[in-house]
Amino acid sequence: MILDIEISDLRKLTEYIKTKGNYDFTNYAMSSFKRRILRILELYRLPSVDALIEKIESEPTFLEVFICEITVNVTEMFRDPSFWRQLRDEVLPNLLLNHKSINIWHAGCSSGEEVFSMAILLKEANLLDRVRIFATDLDKEIIQKAKKGKYTLKNMELNQKNYIRFQGKFELSKYFKEEDGFAVMDPSLVENVTFRVHDLVQGPVFNKFDLALCRNVMIYFNQSLQNSVLNKLHESLFNYGYLCVGSKESLIWCDSANKFIVVNNEEKIYKKIKE
Amino acid sequence: MRNFKINSDYKAVVIGGSAGSFQGITKILSQIPEDFPLPIIMCLHRLKHVRNGFVEALKLKSTKDIVEPVDKESIRRGQVYLAPANYHLSIELGNYFSLSTEEMFNNSRPAIDITLGTAAYAYRHRLVGILLSGANRDGGIGMARIQQKGGLTIVQDREECMISTMPQAALDLAPMDYELKLNEIIDFLNQLHKKLNS
């Protein structure tokens, strides 16, 4: 029958990873975390969680592989085009009305699709040189991938459809060239982007931002971890800075919720109003 | 009318459907008692990039309110839920939902196997699973999981299905308790309603 894992096995694994690798998955949402583990067992033909622990123990490099596989790195350019239109037409004009330059943080940037979306949006609005972007992720490998901006043509089809719905000024193909069956994004788009490894769960507050995007990242955490990560995001924002989360995420049960107001409920755009 | 042997410890109903299931779902929702006490959790294949409109279309004839849950939303008695576009919908231990943007499964996001499989894990034998018409095999593993955990499994009658690939996938993996026509599924839910309210 179909392989399954017990909760006790998952606990054993998260304890081990915490001690061994200083990554804390204790408060990840259970069902998606379990699916990630099952996926790893299947990919590497491991019969059990014990075998997985044994593999990490005996092959030091496998820990990085594990981190890479455990994090969900499925993303799109201009996912939710109406959200990106809202950023372009409302949020950014509002921020840049009062500031000469602004800081943007992509927290949990994965393979970088949203970073490129942002850069394209800014370039088309002639704002790219007024913005400093920080893009961070837990996973070293994926940060390298994001920097390169190299995507499969199959994914590019979806990205192009989203770009059209976003009502971009040109065609998405203006921003990449095809190389060996891949789309390679124009590197000038991200020359002012700082890509950096940062752990949203255990890492420090490292800068202050006018706009933070953390879309479909906290869905992988349980409520108690969402709560502490939201505190961190709150602390990382200037007063009157904006926070954007995924279209089906909600902050209402977090302690810091009353320190934000809803700017757009449909697109889940919030504004910090209290320190 | 067929009489079903029903016990009263069910806590939730999950429904999966794809191509050819819209009419069936609409019919079920239009005939279900307004005070049906269990949560009904639906995972239906839908356009990935159309966020709005589907709930509204289902609500037109439904006796009950329907919502797309947000991440970590508590599951309430008597509420009808629909998996949102472009997210997988899971049921967590502790009676709440979680969403994820993981890889597509069976070419689908939301994937029925994920919703049904996590529901089976959370509710075990206290779950009713219903799988309707559909053109791919998504839902088969989920129904098998429900069967494995001792829940009640119903697939739509293959002759009645517009496309029977989906119920067939479930039947290929595990014995299902019932293979029913839509009208019988509605009878079943009505009898379940009576049983739970008695």
From TrEMBL, chain A:
Domain of life assignment: Bacteria
GO terms assigned for molecular function: S-adenosylmethionine-dependent methyltransferase activity
Gene name in the database record: cheR_1
Signal sequence region: none
Xref: Pfam families: CheR, CheR_N
Domain CheR-type methyltransferase, chain residue ranges per copy: 1-275
Designated name of the protein: Chemotaxis protein R
UniProtKB/TrEMBL annotation, chain B:
One GO location term (cellular component): cytoplasm
Residues at the active site: 18, 45, 138
A matching Pfam family: CheB_methylest
Domain CheB-type methylesterase residue range list: 6-185
Keywords: Chemotaxis, Hydrolase
UniProt organism field: Persicobacter diffluens
InterPro entries tied to this protein: CheB_C (IPR035909), Sig_transdc_resp-reg_Me-estase (IPR000673)
Reactions listed under catalytic activity: [protein]-L-glutamate 5-O-methyl ester + H2O = L-glutamyl-[protein] + methanol + H(+)
Coiled coil segments of this chain: none
Protein name, UniProt field: protein-glutamate methylesterase
E.C. designation(s): 3.1.1.61
PANTHER family xrefs: PROTEIN-GLUTAMATE METHYLESTERASE/PROTEIN-GLUTAMINE GLUTAMINASE, PROTEIN-GLUTAMATE METHYLESTERASE_PROTEIN-GLUTAMINE GLUTAMINASE 1
GO MF entry, a single one: protein-glutamate methylesterase activity
Gene Ontology process terms (BP): chemotaxis
